[in-house]
Amino acid sequence: MSLDSFAGRVVDAPGRLLGGRSDDEHGEMAGTVERWAAMLGGTALGVAGLRRGDWAGMALAAVGGGLFLAGAAGMPVAAPVRERLRDLGEGLGEGGLDRIGGGVAGLIPSARREPTTTQSVVTIAAQPERLFRFWRNFGNLPKIMDHLEAVEIESEKRSHWKAKGPGGVRLDWFSEIEQERENELISWHTVEGSQLPHKGQVMFKPAPGNRGTEVRLTMAYHLPGGQSGRAVAKMFGATPEQQVREALRRMKQLMEAGEIATIDGQPSGSRGAYRPVIGEK
Amino acid sequence: MKALCYNGVNDLRVERVPDPKLIGPHDVIVRVILSSVCGSDLHLLDGYVPTMMPGDIIGHEFLGEIVEKGPEVRNLNRGDRVITVSIIGCGKCQYCQNEEYSFCDNSNPHPQFTEKTYGHACAGIFGYSHAFGGYAGSHAEYIRVPFADTNCFRVPEGVTDEQAVFVSDAAPTGYMGAEMGNIKPGDVVAVWGCGGVGQMAIRAAYLMGAEQVIAIDRYPDRLKAAQLKAGAEPLDYTRVDIYDALQAMTGGRGPDVCIDAVGMEADGFDTGAEYWYDRTKQALRLESDRPKVLRQMIECCRKGGTLSIVGVYGGLIDKFPMGAAMNKGLTFRMGQQHGQRYVKRLFDHIQRGELDTSYLLTHKWSLDDAPEGYRMFKEKNDNCMRVVFAP
Ligand SMILES: NC(=O)c1ccc[n+]([C@@H]2O[C@H](COP(=O)([O-])OP(=O)(O)OC[C@H]3O[C@@H](n4cnc5c(N)ncnc54)[C@H](O)[C@@H]3O)[C@@H](O)[C@H]2O)c1
Ligand SMILES: [Zn+2]
Ligand SMILES: [Zn+2]
Questions:
Q1: CATH number of the domain within which B153 lies
Q2: pTM
Q3: Atom 23 (ligand 1): residue with closest C-alpha?
Q4: Domain stop point among B334, B359, B378
């Protein structure tokens, strides 16, 4: 079932999307299943509102994001992230990070919320099998996600992700595969204690008219306070929306063209400062 | 190496820049032998295509010799004499597979610009602003060509450099302009603009079965070339009313197919008020393109006829006569050229003597004189149709 078709329905049947994980599997994150389900359920709506928008804004997106936030309330912000944000001078809303981090995210007026779930889709001229295989090996993801340095596979389900931001910030976290349907869907989430709690899901669906596969990537960041988008942007130099789109774009280029187009390293004339010229107009 | 660099609006300088090197596995490096100016460059130089940066190397219509190739280049070798299509295809995406190379999904490293402004990203183009990828252009001693197997074509024996260079851009653009007109035997075709692109469109229209082609411009040398080299009936828009003339020449029906080979900087001396309306709005950035030719084509074209647009537009136009277009049931076709689709056909026509491209080359100059060459081309001095630089 596609994410879109979940909009407005998922809240009724959260377990179905997430494959019936038990509620208290992650200790402190009690109610995880419902929360993630609510976030993904909010996705289609949030994304519809976000089309072309940015992270601050639009009422429709706020509603979609709000659904997520309701689910996310009560999740403490990991200390390193909180410190990093403070270093960057990034307050999380009116009361600041601490108060919101204390678990009152659901109380932020909806107009102040920012969506924390983002989704992008691209059509790739390749069979779902090939794309699924590429993605299932998380070790491939640094090739298409700029902020990742490496992803080490630790077991069938568990992987260790190492990221770096433009300011030299380093973060790492462990993820677990949550659901996997051969050639259709992979979802994963960070394990308890991660510095940047989030969840990802990639879906593969044959495109009509023999045009390959529609690949839909959803990322849901699990910071309370509704400021996750900005937090991620500060840390990695790109908003979650940009990251998701860029990852899909790079994957498409790699899978189709066998390389990622670039002009880095090509010659140019003087970019402003005077350089001796041979002839002038 | 030497290269011609953009430094600001109508400010070009020949500078010394680093030599290009292979970057991607499908790249080649071409030693440039001939590199032509194109009307599209004038839109860049006049500042109507945003996202140019000082230091950008311009030029996109060129012929040269392959001197280096990346590890995954299959069909080309060092020493090959090749032309390169100005608009870059990856060869693998759905659009490239359909031979719609200028729609390529993968060749533009900066897709965000056109994605934001046009809704979807367009292909990369050599030397044609960062919105179209920011690729260094061909007015240089060497150029790097990405996805070379898709974009470089060996020039057949017996075709000269001077004939072949225009198979890069002007010839396929004119050819596609005619093809989009879906010309049927007996059709009368009118072509606005007798630059390199218009000249090629006239010839291509005849090759596709047009009964008669009418060519519109104001420069006597270009109209003369259209008549003598391409076989068109010339019309000088500064001396006749184009609508009246076209109706008179087509029994009151209007041309079956109208081709725009002028683009966003149309002149308009015959209807001064309209020209100055658009010129003023364009200068104030209230309108980015001057759509005079488009309006005229809509008025002149026969009911149910086709407008084929290869002249380049970049942004917004004003006072578009939608009512006339709708009620006359016109078909609009347009686009940047899918050159790779036409190269073989064009070389065949050239080899059989059916298409003469070489007369577009009116001046062959050293790259050192390129800034002056562009001034001549822009002002249409000295009967310049296209000046080609040999580094
Ligand atoms: N679609 C593509 O892929 C592609 C490729 C190459 C060039 N182009 C475009 O094609 C157009 C022509 O290119 P070119 O190299 O021949 O340019 P050019 O500047 O040499 O020729 C343009 C001609 O149009 C004439 N003109 C101006 N206003 C006119 C009017 N109102 N009515 C009739 N003619 C008029 C000019 O006098 C000139 O002779 C440009 O817009 C260029 O950007 C498009
Ligand atoms: Zn051109
Ligand atoms: Zn392509």
A1: 3.90.180.10
A2: 0.84
A3: B193
A4: B334
